[in-house]
Structure formats: structure tokens, C-alpha cells
Write a structure and sequence with these properties.
The protein is α+β, with helices and mostly antiparallel strands. The protein is 24% helix and 29% strand. It contains seven helices and 15 strands. It has a six-stranded antiparallel sheet with strand order 2-5-4-3-1-6. A hairpin with a 2-residue loop joins strand 4 and strand 5. The protein is elongated, with a radius of gyration of 26 Å.
Length: 303
């Protein structure tokens, strides 16, 4: 009897482990078309893989103290913002203690600049510090993204729209189709700007990130910013009236919790209050928005 019980336990354990492994395998194998697009076209390039001729876009008005001019000009007032920097070569240098480290040399408008890493090339490639070289954006991938995405219809996944004069427009929508006009360099935090036209033909842009080369601090990665397919297809159970509210970031009584998350995102705090009539919840957001639920449906809210 004891042996039978042991055998039964082993069989149950094996079955459970097999099921768990398969679930993990399925989870890992779920790669979206947007992730595939990035993985195939914009692979991260550590400095050890850089080649002479790589082009970089400079985002700061003045030269960062870590990127020094080889022949500095006294009281240089040159505005370097939007300047093109080209990788010239890697130079090995040995300090007084005999330790070797790598210097990265650039040229810009017939001037030479040097970035002293203080590390070997491999050590610098392995560093976790971001950005690797302040104020520089890898221009090669910007140009490639422009050639691949220009005139394509994408679906925008968030409402952080900008114009060249205004940022974070309050009336912007999400989950709507837009047509890409161009891809341009962004800033030190968000290295890529994708310009697009909305359904009215007006031009906006949104910040994002591609490979993360040079700078990988942005949370607005391409798969979190755009979709190649209409997100509406995934939510066929949501009626048109509520979907219109979601795309505009609006709220209404009767919406369920999933619809609220799609509309304004996950809450920063949830308070649950059990009552005799059912479960009440209060969702609080950092911007002051509060949403109240009874049995999973919105009964009132404050924005």
C-alpha cells in the first residue's frame, strides 16, 4: 500500500511539473510582432561592436565634460545641439601604472573629440551605467527606423502626444490609427521621436526607444508605444460606446475594472471594503483621480 502511494505521488508530481514547464514555455514563446520587429532590425550594439563611421546625434548645446575636444578653443561658444558626431577610431592608452584602457574618438565639423572611458573596451561595453556617453544618440538606427516605418499605419498605445511647441496634449487619444511621417532623434532620456499624422491630418510626435544602444533609460519602448494591428480586435466584448470612452481616456458609471485600466491605467492604490451588499473598492491615482466600484462596476468617480 505504501509503495502504491509513493508511485501515485511521483506520478502527480511529474504531471504537475510537466504542466508548469509547458506553461512557462508557452509564456516565454509569446513574442509580439512589435517585439519581433525590434529584435530583427534594432539589435543592441555595445561599444565593443561599434565600427568607425557610426554616426551619432548630439542633443546638448554644450559639449559634456566627459567628451573633450582634442584641441579645445578658449571660450568656445559653439552650439553643438543637433551636431553630427562620427566615430573615428578606438585608441588604447596606458596609464602610469601600466593599466590599459580605451579612448573613443569622434569627429564633428572637422573637430576631433575624445571620450576617455577609463576602462578596457569590454569593461566599458559591460557597464550598466546609462547613458553610456551623455547627449549622444545613435543616428544609424534612427535612419533605419525612418526607412522602415515612414508612411506606415500604426496604432498608438498611449496618449503622450507632443508637438514641437506643446508636450503631453490633454486631448490626445490612444488605440487609434496614425500614419508615420518620419523618425527623428529625440533627447537624452527618450532617444527617438516618431512623427505621425492623426485622422484629422494634424502632425504630432511621440517619444520611444528602439535598441537601447547608448541610452536605455526610457520606459517608452516601441512595443509599449505602437501596435501593428488594431487593439480593438482583442476587446470584442467592449461595446462601441465604452471603447470611445477608453480611447479618449474618459470614465463613466457602469464601466468594469478592465475597461478602467485600459482607459486611464492601473491605480497607484486600491482600497477594498467588504459590505453586506458586496465588495466595494476605491482606486486612487497619483494625479488625484479616484474611481469607486461596487461588485466590479463603477458607481462614481472623480477626475
Amino acid at each position: 500500500m505504501r509503495i502504491k502511494n509513493i508511485i501515485l505521488i511521483i506520478i502527480l508530481f511529474s504531471t504537475s511539473f510537466s504542466s508548469f514547464s509547458q506553461k512557462n514555455k508557452d509564456k516565454k514563446s509569446t513574442i509580439t510582432p512589435e517585439e519581433t520587429f525590434i529584435n530583427e532590425n534594432f539589435k543592441f550594439a555595445p561599444p565593443s561592436k561599434w565600427k568607425p563611421g557610426y554616426k551619432f546625434f548630439y542633443t546638448c548645446p554644450e559639449i559634456n565634460i566627459t567628451l573633450k575636444a582634442v584641441n579645445p578653443i578658449l571660450n568656445d561658444t559653439t552650439n553643438y545641439q543637433n551636431a553630427l558626431f562620427v566615430l573615428k577610431e578606438f585608441k588604447h592608452e596606458t596609464d602610469w601604472g601600466g593599466e590599459s584602457f580605451i579612448n573613443i574618438c569622434f569627429t564633428s565639423d572637422d573637430k576631433d573629440f575624445i571620450f576617455k572611458t577609463g576602462k578596457s573596451l569590454q569593461q566599458f561595453s559591460d557597464t550598466l551605467y546609462n547613458p553610456l556617453i551623455p547627449c549622444l544618440i545613435w543616428l544609424d538606427e534612427i535612419e533605419k527606423a525612418d526607412s522602415l516605418l515612414k508612411n506606415k499605419t500604426l496604432y498608438i498605445l498611449n496618449s503622450n502626444w507632443n508637438t514641437d511647441t506643446d508636450s503631453n496634449l490633454l486631448n490626445a487619444k490612444k488605440f487609434v490609427p496614425v500614419i508615420v511621417e518620419s523618425v527623428k532623434p529625440g533627447n537624452e532620456t527618450n532617444p527617438v521621436k516618431i512623427y505621425f499624422k492623426d485622422e484629422k491630418g494634424e502632425t504630432f510626435f511621440i517619444y520611444t526607444m528602439l535598441s537601447g544602444t547608448i541610452n536605455s533609460t526610457s520606459r517608452l519602448t516601441f512595443p509599449k508605444t505602437f501596435s501593428f494591428s488594431d487593439p480593438r480586435i482583442k476587446y470584442k466584448d467592449i461595446n462601441d460606446e465604452k471603447w470611445a470612452l477608453i480611447t479618449s481616456g474618459d470614465l463613466a458609471n457602469g464601466m468594469n475594472q478592465n475597461e478602467i485600466k485600459l482607459s486611464i491605467g492601473k491605480p497607484n492604490e486600491i482600497k477594498r471594503i467588504p459590505t453586506y451588499s458586496g465588495l466595494k473598492e476605491q482606486w486612487n491615482y497619483n494625479n488625484g483621480t479616484m474611481v469607486f466600484f461596487e461588485d466590479g462596476l463603477v458607481t462614481k468617480f472623480r477626475k
